[in-house]
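Let's inspect one such protein example.
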Amino acid sequence: MTLITIDVISDFICAWCFIGKRKLDQAISLYKKTYPGGKEDVFQIAWRPYFLNYSNSATSVDKLDLANTKLAHMSAEQRSALGLRMSRIGHSVGINFKWGGRVGRTENAHKLVYMSRSLSADTQNALVEALFQAYHENEKDISSRAVLLEIATRIGINEEQVTECLDNVDDEANVEAEAMQFQSQISGSGVPAFLIHGDHKLSGAQEIQDFMEIFIKVKECDS
């Protein structure tokens, strides 16, 4: 058995980060199904915080209003083409992007994921997936405590544990420190970024084969 560690640096309001997660999931599934002995190997994934902070507002803002500001340099035709391209790429990995709703700061969402490291790997993965889906497919405001509480309890995390996490000042400082640490490690590249087994780095929503090649290298070195 080989243990393959992966640090994923991402933010939940990043569409490419959601695409990258789905491709990583598919790559792990393919590896376990097709590589000799792969089904016995264990993938240990740590989701690391990154803050895109699209808006400087202290409260969440309408995503379409923000897009009008951020994409003001693009023509209507260019914006339409960008939306169609993202929708097409999303559909290829099972994501149905929607562009409505509100966007705000993601610190509390990252705090929940930080807390979930004390829970099972399946719970942590379910939480990350649910946060991405809530924002990108269900047009939910994941800066809202009420929305975060609903997401976390729906996948089985205790309500008291969620409330305690969101109020934990120490965890907030730890998440901010970790975000700075990993932002420094991926300096020069954007998110998502994947640090695989400490020695291999991928950035962007990579193709499944790119992940597979690194998984195999790690496996062969371990053997």
About this structure: The first strand starts at residue 3 and ends at 10. The mean pLDDT is 95. DSSP finds nine helices and six strands in the chain. The two ends are 9 Å apart (CA to CA).
